[in-house]
Amino acid sequence: MNTTVFLNIATAICPDRDIISFEGKHYSFALLNERSNRLANALAGLGVKHGDRVGMLEVNCNQHIEVYFATAKLGAIFVPINFRAKADEVSYMLDNAKIKVLFAGSRYIQMLDTILPKLSFIENCVSTDKKLDGTLAYETLVSSSVPDEVAADIGDEDITILMYTAGTTGRPKGVPLRHSAFAGYVIGNVEPANPIVEERNLLSVPLYHIAGIQAMLAAVYGGRTLVLIRQFEVKEWMRIIQEEKVSRTMLVPTMLKWVLDDPDFDHADLSSLKVITYGSASMPFAVIKSAIEKMPWVKFINAFGQTETASTITVLGPDDHVIEGTEEEKEKKLKRLSASIGKPLSDVQIKIVDESGQSLPYNAVGEILAKGARIMSGYWKDDEKTARAKTKDGWLKTGDKGWVDEDGYVFLAGRGDDMIIRGGENISPEEVEDVLHSHPDIEETAVIGIPDPEWGQEPCAVVTLKNGKTTTAEEIMEYCRSRLAGFKRPRQVIFVESLPRNTMGKVLRKELRTNYEQLSK
């Protein structure tokens, strides 16, 4: 099945239900389908054909979803661009994808003016919100075109999205994602549209990210109303939850912490929330424990996946977030809650391997490999990076370190590059960070390895303190003494005002290592 069928089915089942609620405007399934058809016909008139790439540089908005389905209906490839990327990164992605038509918000046109003259393959630029010189007007394209359904030959294995990774380890890598990859996940894990059952999903993450695309396609297939916000902001998030009676949302750990810490949290009516999915970065145990205590009516789900896997591959489900049972069962659940990403979904295989690629037994730390029909076949126009990322027999090297316990739960031990090796002993940054997060004065922390002439590397904690709190490096190191094995204790503590993060809340450890590696000299 291709993803355009999701919209056709939902439109047939609940045509008048809102699929999009955005800044006071509402778009039914029938209207989304009509506008997408009009836009698809307009794109065809601009020469867009099967396999051509159509770019989108804009925050979350109804146009984002319309452009995706219009592109997909033509059998073309949708390319969402990170709107926070710098000009040279945007230029690289546009060039690498060879975009034919580019949609962009007016706020980005000035930046594009310096880029587009060098990119002659971009034939048309469309301003999504207001007409600007040198661009086509979005609403004019839609209104002046016919609403006829586009009949394109779309194969299930055709590429529907070319998505670029965050680029924290170099240039962004293009990941071509097939219709079947999304269909396999959505059909297997989401209930189809129901004329009686209604859900409202607040999209808190950007649509250039795999989590945003997954949430959008799941909402369309499931007949859910997708409530959009341009970008995440805590008070706006809480306001919309209350006003729209939102029943589910997805948050990265940083967002969840900001919500819980907001002074207005206790006064907000969040009772409509039934499900909060979290992922995309490591979740501090103290944060999820606090969330469970403060929102006991909510079902929490930890979803783990990568751009390269098209969507979620392991899940720590709602039952795993309920700490009940015997003392032994409670201890197991607490351990899982602090470090596990759950069990693999039914269509995914997971194994742990050592540096030579040999499978490791239960509880042994190694690299996490994944295999399944949803895994990417390779990076866009980059055989060298593909060869490094995939084994000859089709396993994806996730780059994450971890282990599997006897019950089949997968545990994270950090990114491969982030693992600290002191005197031959592996130290998981997340394990040390969990201890530091329990310190009453620490707001946030990231643990990195810095070079040491005797031990190879030593753990170093980069710390931000809570407002009004003061403490010393010596006190923090002493705090860890009784809570961590001796070789895992931080040997240095650096105080900073904030931690560098990417757009999805992941701490940029590479940047921290670059900034502080000289401390060992």
Percent of residues in β-strands = 25-35%
Helix content: 25-40%
Q: Unreliable segments (pLDDT under 50, ≥5 consecutive)?
A: none
**Name given to the CATH architecture of the largest domain:** 3-Layer(aba) Sandwich
User: So how many helices?
Assistant: 16
- What gross morphology would you assign? globular
Gyration radius from CA atoms, angstroms: 24 Å
Q: Class of the largest domain, according to the CATH hierarchy?
A: Alpha Beta
Mean pLDDT: 91
The major sheet is characterized as: 13 strands, mixed
Arrangement of strands in the largest sheet? 2-1-11-10-12-13-14-15-16-20-19-18-17
Question: CATH H-level name of the largest domain... which superfamily?
Answer: ANL, N-terminal domain
CATH topology of the largest domain: Rossmann fold
Number of strands: 25
Number of domains: 3
Structural class: alpha/beta
